[in-house]
Design goal:
CATH topology of one domain: ABC transporter transmembrane region fold
CATH architecture of one domain: Up-down Bundle
Number of helices: 20
CATH class of one domain: Mainly Alpha
Bound molecules: adenosine-5'-triphosphate, magnesium ion
Order of helices and strands: HHHHHHHHHHHEEEHEEHEHHHHEHEEEHH
Structural class: alpha/beta
Largest sheet: 6 strands, mixed
Distance between the termini: 55 Å
Strand order of the largest sheet: 6-7-8-3-9-10
Shape: elongated
Radius of gyration: 35 Å
Strand content: 5-15%
């Protein structure tokens, strides 16, 4: 994986391209900040004039013009402030949106292995919170730091021009303040990071406490889980209190630095400013008002540094190359997931062949398949059986090109699968999984994911084929019933039936059923079995099954063990051979007979 950690703290360079779409807003923000800081710098100058002229000299001539100008300055300042804020908001929301879209689209192209290696929580915070922090950095942090920096520079220049000696004295406090603020800031950043870590631990435990509530109860580990939780929240309290203490000290120090600058003016100001009351007051304003902006700038810099982590993590996601990727040449001809060039797609027949395939999962440490050969001519109904972990699902994954062979080739219609696009292949495959997944939305919407153009009759027919009509009829609003997030308002068996119907609607040339009937009762299973026998006609089908009674009719049964086919043949042949299959079958048969006798 590409590491960007060594990037100096200007990993921000990676984000700059995302500002391209917001040139106007950026210009508005920058000019708004500059004008705004000029206005802020100007206010003490006006006060100086008023004090010197109207009060010091006691003349009132031009007070109207002065009032109008002063009012114009204040009003202009407010307007500029508004413009800069609107621009900043536009950039924040826009960049956040663009980064999120980029991350989400990129996630769609990534392979299975990425999702195996990274947890949902991890990916979620990349897409949601990292993008948000980066958006905030290039808008509000930019605004604050430009504005405040403008003010500091403006104030320093004005002071230098009006009274260099006094200005230098006031400025002597600045480096001291910067050092002090940075010390506090780094301490605060560290504490905040720890707090965030503890917080995510607490959230994680909390989630597990909820999702695993039933398991926790049955294992009787409530006490253990609770004591972990209490320990973490206590740690959280300690760290939060420390942070509050440091923050309090920080405020005190800041006030102290302000007062110090003020003291300098009071001490020397009277003499140096030659008792001109206006100038004296102006210096007081600047001296007092300087510390807050400096704090902001220090704040902004530390924000820039801490956000590096977010930038680094997000760009790592955006730069992750999918393990399975169509070559440029293939994409040029066949298009990609977002823009398929279906006019160039040749029809898929459905011949599958493994040619000397060896395979190891990207994060696995041993080869699952070694020099594996298998020919599945179009129209064959293949059953794959074998013990848990034998490599059955792995074969299905390779057929679907969710993974690619480490060595050797998987051929589809006689050509290496890599010569055509993933979408071309996936459009012709119906895949029903052991763990069925539905999307939130209605039953109908879910079925239409299989084929957006399906008619009511086709939907009805598909439901009929998989015996799911009863299931739908039982639902309150029939096809228009909401299935909830991940389809969780339905039972696993019901989800399985519906995902089966969805696969059929796509009229796939190749049908892959991985334990597709594992979660339905025996009666439904028999119904589905009959359906399978009908729908596999005219298709290549790969049926993975634990219950061997369901694959008796297959054209060929492959018995897989440790990634190798140890037996192959029809049910009768395998039974007569009295090998591994025979033993598996009789054992299951006996188990089932015992179970049915017992109850
Ligand atoms: N994503 C993965 N990364 C690394 N190793 C994996 C991965 N998926 C499976 N394996 C390993 O590959 C081997 C074969 O797994 P596979 O899922 O193909 O078994 P299976 O025959 O389908 O088992 P089951 O009947 O339990 O579904 C197992 O040893 C498993 O540990
Ligand atoms: Mg499996």
């Amino acid at each position: 994986m590409k590491k960007t950690e060594h990037l100096p703290f200007f990993g921000i360079g990676k984000v700059l391209p995302y500002l391209k779409n917001y040139r106007k807003a950026l210009l508005g923000l920058i000019s708004g900040c500059l004008v705004g800081s000029l206005v802020d710098t100007g206010v003490p100058l006006f006060q100086r004039y008023a004090l010197n002229h109207f009060i010091g000299e006691g003349k009132l001539d031009g007070i109207w013009l002065f009032t109008i100008l002063y009012f114009a300055l204040i009003a202009g300042g407010a307007l500029v402030n508004y413009v800069a804020c609107v621009c900043s908001m536009r950039i924040e929301v826009g960049v956040d949106k663009d980064l999120r879209n980029a991350a989400f689209n990129h996630l769609q192209t990534l392979s299975f292995s990425y999702f195996n290696q990274n947890s949902v929580g991890y990916i979620h915070s990349r897409v949601m919170s990292d993008t948000q922090r980066i958006g905030g950095l290039v808008s509000w942090t930019l605004l604050d730091s430009l504005w405040q920096m403008g003010y500091v520079v403006g104030a320093v220049v004005v002071m230098l021009v009006i009274n260099t000696r006094l200005a230098l004295l006031v400025m002597a406090v600045i480096p001291l303040a910067v050092v002090l603020f940075s010390l506090f800031q780094s301490r605060l950043v560290k504490l905040n990071r720890e707090i965030r870590e503890i917080n995510s631990q607490i959230t994680g435990n909390f989630n597990e406490g909820i999702t695993g509530a039933r398991t926790i109860k049955t294992l009787v580990i409530e006490k253990l889980i609770e004591s972990d939780f209490v320990r973490d929240t206590a740690r959280m309290r300690r760290q939060a209190t420390s942070a509050a203490r440091v923050r309090g000290l920080f405020m005190v120090t800041m006030n102290f630095a302000s007062s110090l600058a003020l003291a300098v003016v009071l001490w020397k100001g009277g003499v140096i400013a030659k008792t001109q009351i206006g100038t004296f007051s102006m210096f007081m304003s600047y001296a007092q008002g300087l510390m807050e902006p400096i704090r902001w700038v220090v704040d902004a810099i530390s924000d820039l540094i801490t956000t590096q982590v977010n930038i680094e993590r997000l760009t790592r996601l955006l730069e992750t190359e999918p393990d399975v990727k169509d070559s440029d040449e293939v994409t040029r001809i066949y298009g990609d997931s977002f823009e398929a060039k279906k006019e160039n797609w040749e029809p898929l027949r459905g011949d599958i062949e493994f040619e000397d395939v060896s395979f190891q999962y990207p994060d696995g440490d041993e080869k699952i398949l070694e020099h594996f050969d298998l020919k599945i001519p179009f129209g064959t109904n293949v059953a794959i059986v074998g013990e848990t972990g034998a490599g059955k699902s792995t074969l299905a994954n390779l057929i679907c090109r969710f993974y690619e062979p480490t060595e050797g080739r998987v051929l589809i219609d006689g050509r290496d699968a890599r010569e055509r696009s993933q979408l071309w292949l996936h459009s012709a495959i119906g895949y029903v999984l052991q763990t069925p997944h539905l999307f939130s939305g209605t039953v109908r919407e879910n079925l239409l994911y299989g084929n957006p153009d399906a008619t009511e009759e086709e939907i009805d027919h598909a439901l009929e084929l998989v015996s799911a009509k009863d299931v739908v009829a039982r639902l309150e609003k029939g096809l228009d019933t909401d299935v909830g997030e991940g389809g969780d308002m339905l039972s696993t068996g019901e989800k399985q039936l519906l995902s089966f119907a969805r696969a059929i609607l796509a009229k796939p040339r190749i049908l892959v059923l991985d334990e597709a009937t594992a979660s339905v009762d025996t009666i439904t299973e028999q119904k589905i079995q009959a359906a399978i026998d009908t729908i596999i006609r005219g298709r290549t089908s790969i049926v993975i099954a634990h219950r061997l009674s369901t694959v008796r009719n297959a054209d060929v049964i492959l018995v897989v063990r440790d990634g190798k086919i140890i037996e192959r043949g029809k049910h009768r042949e395998l039974m007569e051979a009295r090998g591994h299959y025979y033993r598996l079958y009789t054992r299951q048969y006996e188990d089932e007979a015992t179970a049915s006798l017992l109850g």
